[in-house]
Design goal:
about 575 residues; alpha+beta; 4 domains
Length: about 575
């Protein structure tokens, strides 16, 4: 009861905070405040910042013919302006109003693409520029649009006549003033940091007094110091947040240099920490580990960002502030979640995956988490976030963290994490020729009275991953058979891996090429069950999972092992 009451109190506190924020935002969009967003129109764009996101001229051609493939959803406009359509897909709408697709038109480099970009910007200004409301003016979307308009101002203004040039700069100035007004009151997290990045871009790219740049730089530095952890991770614990923010921060650093302005030390420090953190989360095939909202990886995006990483040597093995561990030896990579849940304000993408791990060998993934279908149906998200979708243990088929799925508050909050582990101690066990750690979490302590402890050791030149899962009562009290001690330890197998079982209950995980791994357990006969891999590039895929099922009152500790049987001679990870 105390657990439910605590979760309920936390949820309604969040509701009250977000309701107050939205009320104030509506006031700022009303006629009483709107006059504050008028003012002097900048005369020109001084510099167009670079854009590191990948561009595809083919998408520009699709847009020209009225087909908009945005946010994993294709909409055909039939000659109508996309800004006139009422498309029910919220992700598509946010992508449309964010204007990041302008980069595809810039990549085309033709006058036709520039004219199309200009026509679409004209439509947006006519239909949404004078009415501060809806998805188009959500602060996070506004920040993306301000950055995109500045980065691709050269293509938008190419061949433009003076009335459009003036209208573009006037609308940009209004958006910047609005964003400056609401930024401080935005919820904690990635969108608020991006708003500060957008305002810094604006102060550098448009004629502005020195005081505006100093203020934007100071606010940016404060937000970076708050949101970027000492080990380079983001407070949300999302690997994708590191990638997305670097795609904005690296061009911002370059823009400071191009304008002969000194970037804040916090910006330099954040980038210097985040680049190694991105490498920390990366498997050897270039994909990011599927933790806390991570779906399919577009490898070229990561490669583009990491070209700016001057760090030499192997990735770090320990990210204590982000709450992750890495084992890496002879082409084998193990990445594990050993951290507390993120703060509730930034937990909308958080998963209940404490002590879950992934194993890759060379460029092939063997043990994975289910990940998420980034652009898929929202009803599958709760399944992907559950503990059972991760390569870790569940007790009584219950997740180790709790989420809000209340329909009454989802419009305000989404589905934040409102309860989970409160203590996750972790200790490295590295020795010569072996890397390992042992960690424990109390996510099941209040509900079922159990602690889960996991130990992983990678040794024998990377050929053996030895694991131990232990279940104990707080204070080492005796475990009783009370019908609430049913344990399931899951190992989700990547769908590209064949899974074979022999007469001795050994399971062989075989890749089409390269290594094979044999799974054994000394206390429990492993079983094979169906599973779903949500993070496929083309959407969810059927997969399988290895399951160890037992009662903690009968078996309090299981030892399992994954042994590499074919060695393809992969180099060390980098």
């Amino acid at each position: 009861m105390a657990l439910v009451a605590s979760s309920t109190t936390r949820l309604w506190t969040l509701v009250a905070k977000e309701f107050w924020r939205k009320t104030r935002r509506r006031l700022r969009a009303g006629p009483v405040y709107r006059w504050r967003y008028s003012g002097r129109t900048p005369e020109r764009v001084l510099i167009a910042p670079p854009d590191l996101r990948l561009a595809d001229p083919q998408i520009a051609l699709e847009i020209y013919y009225g087909r908009y493939p945005l946010s994993g959803h294709l909409v055909e406009t039939g000659g109508t302006s996309p800004f006139q359509l009422d498309v029910p897909n919220r992700g598509w709408q946010k992508s449309l109003h964010g204007f990041r697709w302008l980069r595809h038109m810039r990549a085309t480099g033709t006058e036709l693409a520039a004219a199309n970009a200009r026509a679409l910007v004209t439509d947006w200004i006519a239909m949404h520029g004078n009415q501060i409301s809806g998805i188009a003016w959500e602060p996070g979307t506004t920040a993306k649009r301000v950055i995109a308009w500045l980065q691709h101002s050269s293509v938008v203004l190419q061949g433009a006549e003076f009335p459009f040039y003036r209208a573009f700069l006037k609308s940009l100035a209004v958006q910047i003033r609005y964003l400056r007004s609401v930024a401080r009151e935005m919820p904690d997290g990635e969108a608020r940091l991006r708003a500060r990045i957008a305002l810094a871009f604006a102060a550098l790219s448009l004629p502005a007094p020195a005081s505006a740049l100093r203020s934007a730089t100071r606010n940016l530095a404060e937000e970076l110091e708050h949101q970027i952890l000492p080990d380079g991770g983001h407070i949300s614990r999302k690997p994708m947040a590191v990638l997305e923010l670097l795609a904005d921060l690296l061009p911002l650093r370059q823009t400071y240099a191009n304008q002969a302005e000194a970037p804040p030390a916090a910006l330099i420090g954040a980038i210097d920490r985040m680049l190694p953190a991105l490498r920390f989360f990366r498997h050897q095939d270039g994909s990011l580990a599927r933790f806390n909202g991570m779906g399919a990886t577009i490898h070229d995006r990561i490669a583009t960002i990491l070209r700016h990483d001057d760090t030499v040597g192997a990735p770090l093995l320990h990210a204590p502030h982000s709450g992750y561990e890495r084992l890496s030896m002879s082409g084998v990579t193990v990445i594990a979640d050993t951290g507390l849940p993120p703060p509730v304000d930034v937990s909308n993408a958080a998963h209940a995956g404490c002590l879950a791990f992934e194993l890759s060998s060379g460029r092939q993934h063997f043990i994975v988490n289910a990940g998420i279908d980034t652009y898929g149906a929202p009803e599958f998200r709760p399944l992907a976030r559950a503990t059972a979708a991760h390569s870790t243990a569940t007790i009584n088929d219950t997740s180790s963290a709790r989420f809000s799925h209340s329909l009454r508050v989802s419009d305000l909050l989404g589905s934040p994490l409102i309860g989970g582990p409160q203590h996750v101690p972790c200790k490295r066990l590295d020795q010569k020729g072996m890397q390992g750690f042992v960690a424990r979490h109390d996510g099941y302590a209040q509900q079922f009275g159990f602690l889960h402890e996991r130990e992983l050791k990678l040794g024998t030149n990377g050929n053996v991953l030895a694991g131990r899962d232990r279940f104990l009562r707080p204070g080492n009290a005796a475990i009783r058979n009370n019908g609430r001690d049913f344990v399931t330890v899951r190992f989700h197998v990547h769908p590209d891996i064949s899974l074979l079982q022999d007469d001795h209950d050994r399971l062989t995980l075989a890749a089409a090429q390269g290594d094979s791994w044999v799974f054994t357990c000394s206390e429990v006969v492993p079983e094979v069950e169906e599973s779903i891999y949500f993070a496929g590039l083309s959407g969810p895929r059927r997969s399988r999972q290895i399951v160890l099922a037992f009662k903690a009152s009968e078996i309090a500790e299981v030892h399992w092992q994954l042994t590499r049987t074919i060695i393809a001679g992969y180099p060390e990870n980098n």
